[in-house]
Please model this.
Amino acid sequence: MPINTDIQAVDDIFQEGKVVDGFVLGKEVHRGGMASLFSATKEGIDVPILLKIPRVGRDQPVESLIGFETELTILRSLKSPYVPQYLGSGNMATRPYIAMERVEGRPLEDYIKEGKVFTIDEVVRIGADLAQAVQSLHSQDAIHLDVKPENILIDERGKLTLIDFGLSHHARYPDLLAEEMRKGIGSAPYISPEQVAGIRSDSRSDIFSIGVIMYELLTGELPFGNPQTMSGLRKRMWAEPFPPRAIRREIPRWLQEVVLRCLEPRAADRYQGAARLRQVLRDPEGVTLTERAERVEPPSFWENLKGMFKAAGYEPSPSPRPSMGNLDAPLMIAAIDTRQSDEALRERMQITAKNLLQAYPESRLICLSTIASTPTYEGNHESQTASGIVRGHLVQLMEWAKPLKLPPERISYHVLEALDPASRIVEFAKDNDASLILIGASHKLPNKVTPWRTSMTKIVEEAPCSVHIVRT
Amino acid sequence: MTERIGLFADLHSNLEAFDSCMARAEELGVTRMVFLGDLVGYNADPVALLERIATLVENKKAIAVLGNHDEAVFKDSRNQMNASANAAIEWTKSQLNNDHIDFLKNLPLMVQEDQICFVHASAYNPAEWNYITDSMSAWRCVQSSGKNYTFVGHAHEQALFYQSAVGKLIRFAPHPGDEIPVLPHRQWVGVVGSLGQPRDGNPEACFAVFEPASESLTFHRTPYDHYTAAEKVRRAGLPEDLANRLITGK
Model:
């Protein structure tokens, strides 16, 4: 069964002068392909109100309905000075509308259309403000995904507001646009390469869009044009944009560096968080200049060709959770030998872990143990099966960590299968970008050198991070 | 008073988790309870749990449907379960009296209301206990239920399947405590997660609350004294591994 879009025409319900759920409708201020906007008032609400009514009904595209539902879900959940305040909504089946604060200001698009020439300082300020606005979304696990001049309102004092969340993504709600048939929904000039590839969960897509906007404001041109075909859209997966300084000489090198870095095809090569982007725009001293800053010539035929080959296997970088982009909470690993029982050492390690965790309130702890290997034979008793054995070790790790009294979001447990425990622990630390490995060294060593001891040496030598050795 | 439906599945004789979730549900203003099957099995308190649920059902405060572990108490289904599960069923049988067994025997497989379907595993051939784990199994389920909302258990991990623009059902991993708008022009399948034996690595008990008036669904996780529940499993002589599952949540 396809989605039921048989919602009655909304034109009869929403007319000037009519009252819907206490909202008194004023003039229709805008009518677009997807929605109409009415001004409104309501007793008890003292900010100007805007009612957004989707164009739904038998003869309307299904996208306007999904966009409406998406915007409703996300706008309702956001709290940000850079987003219109949500004020209410109507039943989707009978009288669909979203009531929101009517924000002062004109779309950035209007200024561009009027042919306004932006000074370097103006562009830097708009870029920094945009980064801050976008950061306020990312920190709430939302990604705008349609940042473009039309969706940016600027008021007389220069304060900026992001509008239209019909294409947005929120990590904590079902993505109604996921697996949509058409890939690369959004506005052709501004969407990121990963959006072209159909990925909707990468917060660094918004950073790409900010890069496009800054480029446009600086040069009056779009870095990748306004393509209307899929192959045209794919160009941004490999093409190097024409260097802005080749168009406008007065652009400082550092700013070209920043803009071109935002426009990198691979998200992992851009600024990883909007807060970082804002920081470099506010403090250009901190920008490290690379060859990006020096480009003055358009990319050569050969460079473009190289890029095209690279794009043939375009692999979008994995998307981190939006709110994680700006966290530098250290991750610690406690390597616990669940096979030996040295009470004194155990206690000493627990105390050390506790102290370290207290020193870094944002830190997380992973309790790790390695086992030789699990049997492939699946016995009749759960305790003999692979999962049963692993669970047995997990229980020991949990018992170990119990006195630390950490909330679940700060601790996790892993039992790794490994013939060479040291290498596996080092590899795990690398994969998880750990800051510290905590290991215990017992003085109650048996006569021969135990494997654990050589393991310890190996971890110290090969670890990608600090190693803290606890002794009794 | 707005109706708030508390949804609880795979309770598995875990009294500590049950009491903790009931207390939390009361705080959340739950007006009606639905027990989505597998009331017994695995853990150590089948009698106390069944008696509490039977009272709620008798007082019209709750409805309950049948799960495969409940069925195993009165029907031979040894071939369908692993050794620990079978051992727990044998032990459970030894604890229950005829009234308890009659209560289980009389549970319906499925309850259909105006817009909602309640069933333990899937509305598609409910007696076959199909798991809803992917797009296809969720699609079969909504095809059979025909309702906007289908709430199930059986798969122990919380998930929400929603209908996309192309009709396909997509899996979403909900975040506990977030109120998710579930508008009735699409079809939804909520897998509410296990109350009595969570398996996603987090020992906290799972349940969900659906509010029809506001068209919203919230998944919850509630901590409870899982060490005591595990200790009871050990003391009852049930397989050690079942106690470990409660402690690790795996």
Observations:
- The interface with chain B takes residues 1-5, 7, 62-63, 65-66, 69, 72-73, 76, 92-93, 171-181, 380-383, 387-388, 391-392, 394-395, 398, 408, 412-413 of chain A (CB under 8 Å).
- Chain A has a mean pLDDT of 84.
- DSSP finds 15 helices and 16 strands in chain A.
- The longest helix of chain A spans residues 120-138.
